[in-house]
Amino acid sequence: PRRSSFFWSAPVKLEDHDATAAALVTRAAGIATNGIEGCIGNTPLIQIQSLSKATGRVILAKAEFLNGAGNSPKDRVALNMIVEAEKQGLLTPHQGDTIYEGTVGSTGISLATLARAKGYKAHICMPDDQAFEKSDLLIHLGATVERVPVAPITSPDHFVNLARRRAIEHTRSSSDGSKGFFANQFETESNWQAHVVSTGPEIYEQTDGDLDAFVAGAGTGGTISGVARYLKLEAKMDKVRVVLADPQGSGLYNKIKHGVMYSSTEKEGTRRRQQVDSMVEGIGINRLTNNFEVGRDLLDDAVKVTDEQACRMARWLVENDGIFVGSSSSVNCVAAVVAAMKLPPGSRVVTLLCDSGTRHLSKFWKHIKEMGLEDEGEPTDLFAELGIS
Ligand code: PMP
């Protein structure tokens, strides 16, 4: 397996996984001889100074927006999904094959980028309530983009079902032998396994195995499940607490806390809303996906985060740390602080910074401006709310 010079030796030997796994963690220290995919993984772990000082705990955040292809953790997943599909003969480069995916954006951007590099076309179906930065970027990457009205997962026109249908239609009507491949990030094993073989081991190595909690939101659930499985099952860190960061309106918080799947903005027994009632993009969902289910039993706790808390945290991170992130990263940081305050002083908590604020200018950051937070000083209200004086 290729390794960059600053790469570590994982506690689980790479040979224990297949060649795909090894290929996933190849971020170049020098020349990325395999092109853009050599810029995926091995992201820095940033100690967030302001939050560490305020909490008396060590708050560490993995800078996943520095993944060098599509600038989010989805680079790891997209690469694994493509490599696995190639192995199974579902994709062949330079034959007109097209990757279809239903995504709120990040996975589509990673797939569209890697598709270009690896000789495929990309066709992305996404809900029309997501920030335009993402669909505009997809178009510049040469992907075909369908923005579709928000619909329940039971509808054939839900963005995920539409992507699946488009892939089937492609293969069925293909006159040149080209194939349509539905990547299926919500259900495929290639998603969570990418985090078992790269994100999880990186966190372990970067902290020398000294961490007390891992905190992350779930969109597909691949990240939290994959990292939880690596830390608890492979690295045998039984004591590490895995905590779900869930935005308002998502049903996962209640599933973890109360065993019941209903959204936090509705009462139990009322009709289940399919759409998460939050401005946060990328995390929060009202159904159980395979990727969430494979890690669910390993989750120890969940923290519900309001949109207002997410906005205030995003503003705080810029103001104090020069860290400019999107909404899911901000939710993660709020939940990391809450989780940290439940642990003794000095505890070490790891979370993720999923994407940059530049992908959220027209929605999340516009809202922050409209709230007047950009003119506000320290978020004393937020910290008081989170139990920090
Ligand atoms: N943050 C962002 C910005 C995302 O797009 C996603 C994926 N939808 C996530 C976090 C959550 O990752 P996962 O799908 O692995 O749960």
TrEMBL record:
Its cofactor is pyridoxal 5'-phosphate. It comes from the Eukaryota. PROSITE patterns: CYS_SYNTHASE (PS00901). It holds the Pfam family PALP. Keywords: Membrane, Transmembrane, Transmembrane helix. Residues 37-355 form the Tryptophan synthase beta chain-like PALP domain. This is Tryptophan synthase beta chain-like PALP domain-containing protein. It comes from Trichoderma ghanense.
